[in-house]
Amino acid sequence: MNWGGGGECNSKVADWLGGELGGSFSLLLLLGFSPPFSLGSHDSFSYWVDEKSPVGPDQATAIKRLAKISLVKKLMKKWSVTQNLTFKEQLEGGIRYFDLRVSSKPGEVGNEIYFIHGLFGITVWDGLMEINNFLIHHPQEVIFLDFNHFYAMDHNHHEYLISRIQEAFGSKLCTKECVENMTLQYLWEKEQQVLIFYHYPLFEEYPFLWAGSKMPAPWANTTNVNKLLQFLETTLGERAKHGTFHVSQAILTPRVKTIARHLIRGLKNTLVHRNLPMILKWVKSQKPGTMGVNIITSDFVELVDFAATVIALNNLLLEGDRATKHELLC
């Protein structure tokens, strides 16, 4: 993929659902019950974290104490940031699934919610507005927002967050439906572009909140790339045949000793950069389908041609689908 300055990329990638594939597949492109699959980012919001804010409630008490030393937060940032690109830049680069962790700021007045990964990021509202602005200009693109971790949030915080989601996207929100019945054409006709997955019981009370269980994302929790790839293969073989999406988390997770040994280098230089080529090779070997890859997430998505690879594989499958239909007609 041809990334330009500031993460810009060509409009064909930004419109790959509506433009590249044109709705030709009978089932929703991103589901994995039809052949194609899609690309997501891990800790999608972490391109910016606030070193001046308190350490997040997702961290252990010992880390919070250490973080009173200013240098500690600078080092934390090296391991908290998993993306370089903003939401807009990720969307323009073809990312359609977003992995989201959110939190209130303990002690802050009001119910404001922030993205979080060790350190606090931007407000969720600012992120939603950035995403919605992209969707306004790309009306045939469909995205998944997976709210899967909540910290320091009571019932009122959840109600506030859900109201902000509704305010941001309005009629673009996709109401719950049988997964297999959804098609791109169906979403386009209803002008719906956003599927929200909410890993908290309140999802039952809102027609536009899908159960978190509909978006399983098995986690390898390893620093070893060979163990990661084996885990991805195993979990693909075990995925549900019907009724859910499936996320393959192609990410390596540092241990405490990993961070201690490579404190200054950070996540990207220690684990991500040198292992991404092997992960990309695995992606290129995949065949989507009922038991195949559905959505795949990665750190620092711009470092290799993940999006271009996914789109190219989908185009090949689209050609195969057209050839099959032609044979049936003949």
From TrEMBL:
InterPro entries: PI-PLC_domain, PLC-like_Pdiesterase_TIM-brl, PLCXD1/2/3. GO terms for molecular function: phosphoric diester hydrolase activity. Coiled coil: none annotated. GO terms for biological process: lipid metabolic process. It comes from the Eukaryota. Gene3D superfamilies: Phosphatidylinositol (PI) phosphodiesterase (3.20.20.190). This is Phosphatidylinositol specific phospholipase C X domain containing 2. It comes from Sphenodon punctatus.
